[in-house]
Design brief:
The structure holds two protein chains of two kinds.
Chain A: E1 23-24, E2 27-39, E3 42-49, E4 58-61, E5 65-72, E6 81-83, E7 107-113, E8 118-123, E9 135-141, E10 152-161, H1 166-175, H2 187-191, H3 198-206, E11 223-226, E12 236-238, E13 245-251, E14 258-261, E15 267-272, E16 275-282, E17 284-287, E18 292-297, E19 305-311, E20 317-323, H4 379-383, E21 386-388, E22 412-413, E23 449-458, E24 463-466, E25 478-481, E26 485-492, E27 498-502, E28 507-509, E29 519-520, E30 522-525, E31 529-536, E32 541-547, H5 550-555, E33 558-564, H6 566-569
Parallel strand pairs in A: 1-4, 2-5, 4-9, 10-13, 12-20, 22-31, 23-26, 25-33
Antiparallel strand pairs in A: 2-3, 5-7, 6-8, 8-9, 10-11, 13-18, 14-17, 14-19, 15-16, 15-18, 19-20, 23-24, 26-31, 27-30, 27-32, 28-29, 28-31, 32-33
Chain B: H1 2-20, E1 23-25, H2 46-50, H3 57-63, H4 115-128, E2 134-146, E3 152-162, E4 166-177, E5 184-196, E6 199-210, E7 215-226, E8 230-239, E9 244-251, E10 254-255, E11 260-271, E12 283-295, E13 301-312, H5 314-322, E14 328-339
Antiparallel strand pairs in B: 2-3, 2-14, 3-4, 4-5, 5-6, 6-7, 7-8, 8-9, 9-11, 10-11, 11-12, 12-13, 13-14
Classes of the chains: A mainly beta, B alpha+beta.
């Protein structure tokens, strides 16, 4: 099991302060290569860095310069993308956008100044290598005193692992999109009074929508891992009771958003996507793929605490442990009931019927966030019981083809809402609206323009796209002027969450805390919802912009964003 | 009859359009009480309440300059996105209407790396992100048939090769009685194209090796998922002898448990004319109604049992009787559904 683990990820680590195999300094050598890893008692073929999965922690200091010489020992092209780092575009590591890629046997010297601090990560941007273990953590210490006080720190890299090759996973999804879903609604369930009522099931079936289609790839094939440990391997981070322990939590999964909690131990979120936020205490948070959260926990007593990360469809979970000594374990809670999607996840705004709430509130209540104009018809049409789920007038820019099954008729801002599955959880759950940046937002200008980008797809055909066009069909870049301030509205026309990542920039997620919007590099757009962010386009060059569900990206949900000086663009 | 078939052809071809625009019917508004925003229990929202009330002074101060920037309205159609209070939290600055910049013609990385290398990498990236090609072979039916007067066999399968939209589709079906020459052996080679989210149209050739004399037909059809997850195929056939025929098939998967699935299915064959050489009469020539219960050991491999009632009708039944065959049969079937 431990053969491919770096020292810091070994169970029983006393934390990053102890001597361990991180790489740091101004000159760092990384080697990409084939490794075997052990999961669930089996050996699997993986792609590692410096012989391990996850790769070594890269520990840097704000203000330093770093040179990372990356050697590819694989038989195929590879690359490393430094996720969340602000750097020159040609160092961003996306083959075909920022550079040509690293051919087998070659070494590519990445070189850039370190302009930030916080928790980030790195991963392959070539083929399916990221899904095969090619990821690692980046920890950057601030040049000045850290506003976050802590006595000890641990890095927790969450990931998903399947013994099915990711290419085979994609193939299965194209052949039968529900292939990995083993939590569907059944007749047996109906007879037992579970899940939706017969009437609701009929309505969803008429629309050819499945309320259990929450993740494409599930625990039916995935093992969920913390620092490459499954639950039985029980990765354990040590603490001394009373200490403030900083957990740097990174979602490096290929296709899994996680719910993270430590039963019995509240967490204080101090940073999101590496950027400091005003401390906010919570009991659980959902972490989209590629997001990072830093939390402070202060375990008061001499006992073990389980850190539980469950896939958001609750098809599986992984337990890690925080304990004063190695060998202690906390109980693993039973996995909670599988959630169901609701009308709201179809982009029907407040018309959520499954929770027993309803429509009547819409009638004369414009302030309720219901935009009647966007519905493409008036209320009398609705009274007749029909609502168009593919009305072109709500999204004129979307190319309506077989790859676009639905358009959200009334997408709403869901940043203040609990994500899927938390509707009835009786403890605190973090929402984006709870995140307020610690420092005031640097650019107070209002946006000079705004653009809409629709997140589109067809679950049945496993086709995913922006504005109805897969990247292979439309490689035109989305243009920005240098230093231009633009509001970008991401509108999710699908029933899946999409963690959308813009390379080379931080954007301010518009959450109703003006001046203190959280800075993020990746934002998870809830099903049928919309997220607005304000971007100061300060990174000249071409950048990747994509859904970080790896197979959504590879199915076409990818674009190039370009930032140019005005005179160049003419 | 020919006219009726043509009319049904038109209906068939209109089907995808009709069902493509998904509608949601049956929302009974009266039954639902008004409900406030589902405020999460235990969630501390007190700090939110105070934030939106005050606008940032510097935001409002900076608006004035933006009125002069003329927007290109055609570029940005916001008719569908009227901002409501919830969409845009108060306190945000006003958003201008500046036009988008013209997209550059070049690629930034070409200035730093070998442009030829970059062009190769760009093409690889383009293909990698969306240009899927694949294949699937599916035998929906592969079964042993228990029937009075002689057990037999039957298969119905298809294979596709291609991408998300355009595919080569091969279909085959056949049946027979053990110890006798095969009764039916049909192969179709079709070009299939996705025409809407849930429907594919196809065009191509069908060749019946058996019955004798063999016939070749031009095929026009649609296949897809109708509302309520009904899998429907409709095909029109025009033979090299000028004969006009049609077929409609439908099936539905009722999931009893995650692995146990009950599948009713139906098939109707129609003909515009008598085709005595192959024992087909005009009108509805035959139909099958079946029900199968399968257990998905894996999704790719599911043994099943079932019953099927098949019946030849009208003149087709008369031809069968003349040939000494029973025009109707009830079969017990056992088989396996598999794909890869």
């Amino acid at each position: 099991m431990s053969s491919a683990l770096p020292a810091w990820a070994q169970s029983g680590t006393s934390g990053l302060a102890a001597p361990m195999a991180t790489v740091s300094g101004a000159d760092i050598a990384l080697s990409i290569g084939h490794v075997m890893i052990g999961v669930d008692g089996r050996e699997g073929h993986a792609v590692g860095i410096n012989g391990t999965v996850p790769g070594p922690i890269i520990r840097l200091t704000e203000g330093q310069k770093v040179r990372l010489a990356v050697t590819n020992t694989l038989k195929e092209e590879s690359s490393i993308h430094w996720h969340g780092l602000i750097l020159p575009f040609q160092m961003d590591g996306v083959p075909g956008v920022s550079f040509p890629g690293i051919k087998p046997g070659e070494t590519f010297p990445y070189e850039f100044p370190v302009r930030q601090s916080g928790t980030y990560w790195y991963h392959s941007h070539s083929g399916m290598q990221e899904a095969m273990g090619m990821y690692g953590a980046i920890v950057i210490d601030p040049a000045q005193a850290d506003p976050v006080a802590y006595d000890r720190e641990h890095v927790l890299v969450l990931s998903d692992w399947s013994f099915l090759h990711p290419h085979m996973i994609l193939r299965k999804l194209k052949q039968q999109s529900g292939y990995f879903n083993m939590q569907r609604q059944t007749l047996a369930g109906l007879l037992a009074g579970k899940d939706q009522s017969a009437a609701e099931r009929r309505m969803w079936a008429e629309m050819r929508m499945d309320p259990t289609d929450i993740l494409d790839v599930t625990g039916s094939t995935y093992q969920y891992l913390v620092n490459a440990h499954d639950s039985s391997a029980n990765w354990t981070g040590l603490f001394t009771p009373g200490e403030r322990v900083r957990l740097r939590i990174i979602n490096a999964a290929a296709m899994t958003n996680f719910n993270v909690r430590i039963p019995g131990l509240p967490m204080t979120v101090v940073a999101a996507d590496g950027q400091n936020v005003q401390p906010v205490e919570t009991d659980e948070f959902q972490i989209g793929i590629a997001e990072t959260y830093d939390v402070i926990v202060q375990p008061p007593t001499d006992q073990a605490y389980g850190l539980i990360a469950e896939s958001i469809d609750r098809s599986g979970q992984v337990r890690a442990t925080l304990a004063p000594r190695l060998g202690m374990i906390a109980p693993i809670p039973n996995i909670r009931e599988r959630p169901l999607l609701t009308m709201k996840d179809m982009g029907m705004g407040r018309m959520d019927m499954s929770g027993g709430s309803g429509m009547a509130g819409m009638a004369g209540d414009d302030a309720d966030g219901v935009d009647h104009a966007a519905m493409g018809h008036d209320m009398s049409a609705m009274d007749h019981g029909s609502m168009n789920m593919r009305d072109p007038s709500v999204a004129p820019q979307v190319k309506l083809g077989p790859g676009v099954a639905t358009l959200s008729p009334m997408p709403t801002d869901r940043t203040g809402e609990r994500p899927t599955g938390f509707e009835n959880v009786d403890h605190r759950v973090l929402t984006y609206r709870d995140l307020k940046s610690l420092a005031p937002n640097p650019d107070g200008r209002p946006p000079s323009r705004e653009i809409d980008i629709h997140l589109t797809g067809n679950m049945e055909r496993f086709m995913w796209s922006f504005d109805g066009e897969k990247f292979n069909e439309n490689t035109d870049p989305i243009p920005f002027r240098h230093m231009e301030r633009v509001r970008v509205n991401l509108i999710n026309d699908t029933m899946m969450p999409h963690p959308i990542h813009l390379h080379g920039h931080f954007f301010e997620v518009v959450t109703g805390n003006p001046g203190h919007h959280p800075l993020k590099h990746t934002v998870n757009v809830l099903p049928g919802g919309k997220v607005s962010f304000d971007l100061t386009a300060d990174g000249v060059g071409d950048w990747a912009f994509h859904c970080h569900m790896l197979l959504h990206m590879m199915a076409g949900m990818f674009r190039v964003v370009t930032v140019r000086h005005e005179e160049e663009a003419a | 009859m020919r006219a009726i078939l043509l009319a049904s052809a038109a209906t068939l071809l209109a089907l995808p359009g009709a069902v493509a625009a998904q509608s949601m019917v049956g929302m009974d508004h009266g039954a639902h009480a008004p409900s406030p925003t589902p405020a999460a229990p235990g969630d501390d929202h007190t700090d939110h309440a105070e934030a939106p009330a005050t606008a940032l002074p510097e935001d409002t101060a900076k608006h004035t300059g933006h009125g002069s920037e003329e927007g290109d309205a055609s570029e940005m159609d916001h008719s569908g996105h009227t901002m409501s209070m919830e969409d845009m939290p108060p306190g945000d600055g006003e958003i201008g209407t500046a036009p988008a910049p013209a997209p550059p013609e070049d690629h930034a990385a070409d200035a730093i790396f070998d442009p030829a290398e970059m062009a190769r990498a760009r093409e690889a990236l383009r293909r990698e992100n969306g240009a899927f090609t694949g294949s699937m072979v599916l035998f929906d039916l592969a079964e042993y048939r228990v029937r009075d007067g002689g057990d037999g066999y039957r298969w119905e399968g298809e294979a596709w090769f291609g991408g998300d939209i355009d595919r080569l589709l091969i279909k085959t079906e056949g049946e027979g009685t053990f110890g006798e020459p095969i009764d039916d052996l049909e192969v179709q080679a079709l070009y299939s194209r996705a025409i809407s989210p849930f429907w594919n149209a196809h065009i191509g050739l069908r060749h019946d090796i058996v019955p004798n004399p063999s016939r070749t037909y031009a095929v026009l059809g649609v296949e897809g998922m109708a509302p309520y997850w009904l899998h429907v195929t409709g095909q029109l056939f025009l033979s090299d002898k000028g004969d006009f025929r049609a077929r409609i098939e439908g099936s539905y998967d009722e999931r009893i448990t995650q692995r146990l699935i009950f599948q009713p299915r139906a098939e109707f064959n129609l003909s515009a004319q008598d085709m005595p050489a192959i024992g087909i009469g005009s009108g509805l020539s035959d139909f099958e109604l079946g029900a199968r219960l399968r257990y998905e050991i894996r999704k790719e491999f599911a043994p099943y049992v079932g019953i099927e009632w098949s019946r030849k009708t009208g003149d087709t039944a008369r031809y069968a009787r003349l040939a000494g065959e029973d025009p109707g049969a009830v079969d017990f079937v056992i088989g396996v559904r598999f794909w890869f």
